[in-house]
Design brief:
mainly beta; four-stranded antiparallel β-sheet; 6% helix; globular
Length: 273
């Protein structure tokens, strides 16, 4: 059974992530492993060591609380979502996504994600790679001039309650599209609240990391359940949503569970051109 999805939203949290999933692999700087994966070829075994980022998962499925499924919602619950973005100037150049899902009905054979990074033109040129646990199929977008849908198909259909992990990498070669935020839009059964193990690895919940090049924002902050006008309003000094940029990297883990049909993410305030 094919699924209809867009992206994922990030739950609202109070504290920035202390230990990133990049540091969880040999204590390297955050996002180092993700950046290496983005630059590595998908042929052979070059990517396998990085997929170990997603190696630690809770032994039992977590629930999404009292969320009630509705029409158009993908029949999956996200136990964990890791998003790592590499910026080129002010563009979200590459986005690595690790997903751990739990099927909410029988026959789930894929996950559909909209291309939200500014892709356009020929569907055959959509720059998405299936890194682990899935393969790529593409279909036209659901609305006029809308982005195409990328179907991440699984090796086999899932039964209700069965879990699956898969990794994908999206690239946007259009370096003229400035980004003001990295967004996660939840159109499924939600995302679990965060859990971090003793080694600092995120084993449940939503975590987002953004790596900037020499073009660094004046400020970054996390947002939750805000519209496009609200999320770009820079919080005042001392606000708990403001995030520190350390060695060109900003990161945040959303502590609470993420609700369906809401949006979460990290927003930027760029210096004057």
């Amino acid at each position: 059974m094919a699924i209809r999805v867009e992206e994922l939203r990030l739950g609202d949290s109070e504290a920035p992530m202390r230990d990133t999933w990049g540091r969880a692999v040999n204590d390297e700087p955050s996002l180092r492993s993700a950046r290496n994966l983005m630059n590595a070829t998908c042929e052979g075994k070059a990517w396998r060591s990085y997929v170990e980022i997603a190696g630690a998962s809770p032994s039992e499925p977590r629930t999404s609380g009292c969320q009630v499924p509705s029409d158009g919602m993908q029949p999956v619950f996200l136990e964990r979502l890791l998003v790592a973005v590499e910026m080129r100037r002010r563009v979200a150049y590459r986005r690595l996504t690790v997903r751990n899902i739990i099927a909410r009905e029988n026959g789930v054979d894929g996950y559909s994600a909209r291309a939200l990074t500014g892709w356009n033109g020929d569907l055959a040129s959509i720059p998405v790679k299936a890194i682990f646990g899935c393969r790529i199929e593409t279909t036209p977008g659901g609305r006029m001039a809308g982005p195409p849908t990328v179907d991440l198909r699984f090796p086999k259909s899932l039964r209700k309650g069965e879990r699956h992990e898969f990794v994908s990498l999206a690239s946007d070669e259009n370096l003229g599209d400035k980004r003001s935020w990295i967004n996660v839009d939840v159109d499924h059964h939600g995302i679990a609240p965060s859990v971090v193990d003793g080694d600092g690895r995120v084993i449940a919940g939503l975590s987002v990391s953004v790596n900037f090049d020499d073009c660094v924002p004046d400020a970054c902050w996390w947002y939750a359940e805000q519209n496009e006008q609200e999320r770009v309003v820079r919080p005042p000094a001392g606000d708990r949503r403001l995030l520190k940029i350390r060695q060109g990297v900003v990161e945040h883990t959303f502590v609470e569970s993420c609700r369906p049909w809401e949006e979460y993410g990290i927003a930027f305030c760029w210096p004057p051109s």
